[in-house]
Fold this protein.
Amino acid sequence: MVLKITDFRMAGFLVSRGALFLRTEEKGKQVVFIFEDTNNTTTNLLHSYPSSDEQKYDSACKTMHDMVRIALANRR
């Protein structure tokens, strides 16, 4: 069984947590990351993302990016 995802941040999270990365495929303009998911181990790992340090970091980066965009827009 395999798990296919297109979000590179989630793919990076899975790799950093030791999920077995098999390959990539192209689907139109998207890249699909394919992971081994025997016994739903990778799926279960993916479900731990919302409360992980990696997700908190991603959210903080997004917040800072938004703040910079607002600050630059206000200069105009």
